[in-house]
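#help-structures
NK: newbie question, is this the right format to request a structure? protein is Polyol transporter 5-like protein
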Amino acid sequence: MEEEKIESVEAHLLPSNSSNSSNQGRHKKNKYALGCGVLASMTSVLMGYHVAVISGAQKYMQADLNVSDTQIEILNGILNLASLFGSFAASYTSDRIGRRATITIASAIFFVGSLIMTFATSFLILMVGRFVTGIAVGFSLMIAPVYTSEIAPTSMRGLLSSLPEVFINSGILLSYVSNLAFSGLPINLSWRIMFGIAAIPPAFLACGILTMPESPRWLVMKGRLGEARHVLVKTSDSPEEVDARLRDIKEVVGIPLDCSGDVVTVPRIEKNEENIWKEMFTDRSTPAVKRIIFTVLAIQFFQQASGTEAVVLYTPRVLEKAGLKSDTELLGATILVGLAKLGFILVATFTSDRLGRRLLFLLSAGGMVISYIILGLGLEIIDWTHEENFSWAAVVCILAVVAVVMSFSIGLGPLAWVYSSEILPLRLRGQGASLGTVMNRTMSGVVAMTFISLYEAITVAGSFFLFAGITAMGWVFIYFCLPETKGRSLEDIEVLFEK
């Protein structure tokens, strides 16, 4: 049955004309891996949409259901905090029933969350809907990068591992378009339709995901070597890479390298979750493992503590402070922010394997620091002059907001997930990815639930100066602590952290 599904996907993704040419074979296999990565990352579109749609919908929700600013902060933050539960649940299901089934579960939960939000009649029901959606966000954040990194050949790992972030930002852009498209409807319908249309894609997506192959690494961990090799043949650049990838995975899992059966017994110790946690957090852990876990937590901390969630969730409020007044102006400018965000995600996606992760990280964090300082100064000038009309300072603020998301999207946004996924050893990947997601979502929730209160306490400009300082600390960490991983095999990267 598994082979039939794999062949079904291949029939759709690859040309029917086969060839023994190594160049053509490489093209076909990479195209197949790309197709699998795209399907796996589609849940990230839903995630991005649900995270950001409330940015433009909150004004209409407040008018329709009398929701306060504090309750809006809670609604924004609860999604991120609920994703913690989804992250741990995804860690469990991804190891027990597989990466592919976990992605399907995420789609189903997104469907349920969309319906609850659409028909909500009170703040309490809104909370339930956002909590359910948050669980799906946790599933998507944890499993999509893991699957794409495990399915990708070395030559395309940066590209495929960036796909979830590309699709997250595609979803964010779609949510901004939805905000503008439905803003002219009656208040009691506009925000409901913004959430309701997100219930349509998951039904089709779940069917498509079922045609994907399972992760070859998960198959090896379950002793299904024959199926794993079958998938590796279709997702590797050459027969030599097939053998190398399979050998590396078998070595990590503990299967003898000379074992060639289709189904083998995997040592029990590799399935013992308690042993995995002990290896990460007790004296049994090696210096390399300690450094890897610390690096994963730190890079996820700085990705969200840099304040990008405030820009995504509260863009209309920030632009309103900058001088834009009408809904059309605010939501139109928000779409411009979304386009910039998506465009530079694509730049990072197609250059990370050539320029490397480290350079893009440094450019990203440095650009954000400068943009935040300019944005803060522009807002201070507007506040000092009490300028009522659109002015040059407002233009500077809008361009600075665009520059913030552009800088974030060229490095910290997509590559934090790529880097975290590829430096974690296979035996620690499920639990390590969950820990990174926990840190990411916790900081995201803190920023989302405190931004309004923060800018009321220290002004909007002061908030962005604070984010500039935190991001500068992140730049220092990246410069001194992150080794380059470009072009290295997943199993070889652990050696980098022994130094």
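mod (FA): yep, format's fine, and the tokens are attached above. The chain has one domain: 2-498.
NK: thank you!
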